[in-house]
């Protein structure tokens, strides 16, 4: 099925059907002559010698049936990456080989005698042998197309595309991406674009031979006036992928606004956009559910990593909120959700100073307290002296970490001096919990740790 650029919106791609058309064309002398013309042109310009073993591939353009491309490598292993006009949809490989394998074929030797191989890449000689080359290419191309049409049918029936993936990844002999399943297209191609890069698993194997600089490709494909031809054939697929992400994935504000902009440029009606995707405030609430769950795991989970960067909930708010009023409302929702969570956890010791967004942490503590555990005495000093924060102290966290010693705080006595000097307090609940720990027959503390726990029992409390 040959589809013109002017009709693509009303047609669907079918690689199998295009192969049917291609096979019929390959049976004609006109097709073979056109292939030979391009073959001679490219090899004579390449300057390849008869004794150089080099990989080459011949491609046919499925949208312009008289357009061919011969890609030649400077080695026998893989082809070079192709230029921007060589997109990953238009071009179908119809024959590939290395020059060494080509020369060793008996049908080739029979067409062009061995004594003349040294002259094969001489333009005049190739022109003289054009009829023989036409006949040879006509035969091998038809054989290859029949074989690969069967392989494509089997691959699509069994969902096993390994042969084509390996050929594309290792040799850079690539097939149109509509050959593959939607999942393979996503993992090996779409998810590499920033628009769809939301942390989904991707494959390191490249199914295209074009540039791997996806930022550059994105500017060529995703335009403000819609998808560039022939990528507009995947308009429906990418719209569905975008809607799925917007409705079901935890996105940053930037990711959400980018997908919404893409849909606005792609959908025919704004009503469709509003009816099919979750509204931005509902999506924010859902994302905050996931954010708070992750924050909770970072504060209270097993193996707390004190050196992990703070989580930033404000990344959830972006240009998807298009007015100042909407942005203010979104920020208010975010603050209320985080503050309600912190309020519910304020008596549970954790490294809030390190895990909670600094702006929210400082604002919450203006009118509330948090029972905090610390990685080291230096961290405690920074919060109370440098950051001027009121501290409610716990000697350990939910994962049973005590403050580490360091070059400035060589023992608990140094930490205790700071606690006394800055009037740091604890809570009665912390003291009751420490008493239970000290009485437990299942826990044994080193002398210095036990003494520090007794020190906390003597601290003033906020209640």
Please characterize this protein's 3D structure:
The structure is a single chain. By secondary structure, this protein is mostly helical. The strands form three sheets. It has a three-stranded antiparallel β-sheet with strand order 2-1-3. A hairpin with a 6-residue loop joins strand 1 and strand 2. Helix 1 packs antiparallel against helix 6 and helix 2 packs across helix 6. The radius of gyration is 34 Å and the shape is elongated. The protein starts with 14 loop residues before the first helix and ends in a 6-residue tail after the last helix. The N terminus is likely disordered.
Summarize the structure.
It is built from 20 helices and seven strands. The protein has 463 residues and is mainly alpha-helical.
Which keywords apply here?
single chain; 463 residues; mainly alpha; 20 helices; 7 strands; 6% strand
SSE layout and pairing:
Elements: H1 15-26, H2 29-46, E1 55-61, E2 68-72, E3 91-98, H3 99-104, H4 106-111, H5 123-128, H6 130-158, H7 162-171, H8 182-188, H9 214-221, E4 222-223, E5 226-227, H10 235-248, H11 253-266, H12 270-276, H13 280-300, H14 324-345, H15 352-355, H16 358-365, E6 371-372, H17 377-386, E7 392-393, H18 412-421, H19 428-439, H20 447-457
Parallel strand pairs: 6-7
Antiparallel strand pairs: 1-2, 1-3, 4-5
Helix pairs in contact: 1-6, 2-6, 10-11, 13-14, 19-20
């Amino acid at each position: 099925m040959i589809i013109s650029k002017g009709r693509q919106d009303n047609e669907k791609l079918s690689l199998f059907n295009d192969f049917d058309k291609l096979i019929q064309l390959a049976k004609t002398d006109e097709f073979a002559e056109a292939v030979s013309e391009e073959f001679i042109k490219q090899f004579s310009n390449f300057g390849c010698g008869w004794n150089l073993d080099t990989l080459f591939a011949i491609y046919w353009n499925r949208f312009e049936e008289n357009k061919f491309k011969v890609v030649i490598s400077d080695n026998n292993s893989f082809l070079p990456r192709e230029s921007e006009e060589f997109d990953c949809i238009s071009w179908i490989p119809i024959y590939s080989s290395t020059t060494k394998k080509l020369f060793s074929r008996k049908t080739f030797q029979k067409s062009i005698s061995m004594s003349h191989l040294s002259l094969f890449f001489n333009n005049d000689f190739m022109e003289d042998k054009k009829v023989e080359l036409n006949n040879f290419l006509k035969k091998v191309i038809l054989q290859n197309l029949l074989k690969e049409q069967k392989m494509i049918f089997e691959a699509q029936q069994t969902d096993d595309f390994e042969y084509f993936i390996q050929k594309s990844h290792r040799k850079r002999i690539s097939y149109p991406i509509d050959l593959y399943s939607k999942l393979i297209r996503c993992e090996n191609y779409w998810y590499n674009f920033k628009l769809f890069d939301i942390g989904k698993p991707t494959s390191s194997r490249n199914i295209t031979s074009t540039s791997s600089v996806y930022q550059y490709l994105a500017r060529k494909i995703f335009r403000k006036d819609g998808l560039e031809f022939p990528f507009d054939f995947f308009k429906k697929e990418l719209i569905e992928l975008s809607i799925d992400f917007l409705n079901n994935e935890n996105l940053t504000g930037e990711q959400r606004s980018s997908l919404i902009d893409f849909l606005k440029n792609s959908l025919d009606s704004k009503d469709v956009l509003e009816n099919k995707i979750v509204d931005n405030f509902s999506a924010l609430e859902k994302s905050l559910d996931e954010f708070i769950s992750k924050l909770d795991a970072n504060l209270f989970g097993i193996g707390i990593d004190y050196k992990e960067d703070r989580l930033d909930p404000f990344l959830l708010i972006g240009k998807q909120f298009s007015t100042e009023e909407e942005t203010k409302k979104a920020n208010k929702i975010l603050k209320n959700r985080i503050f309600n969570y912190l309020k519910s956890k304020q008596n549970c010791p954790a490294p809030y100073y390190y895990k909670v967004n600094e702006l929210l942490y400082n604002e919450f503590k203006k009118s509330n307290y948090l029972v905090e555990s610390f990685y080291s005495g230096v961290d405690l000093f920074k919060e109370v002296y440098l950051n001027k924060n009121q501290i409610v102290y716990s000697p350990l966290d939910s994962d049973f970490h005590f403050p580490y010693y360091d070059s400035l705080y060589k023992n608990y006595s140094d930490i205790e001096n700071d606690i006394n000097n800055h009037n740091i307090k604890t809570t009665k609940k912390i003291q009751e919990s420490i008493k239970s720990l000290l009485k437990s027959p299942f826990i044994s503390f080193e002398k210095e740790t036990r003494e520090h726990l007794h020190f906390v029992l003597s601290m003033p409390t906020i209640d």
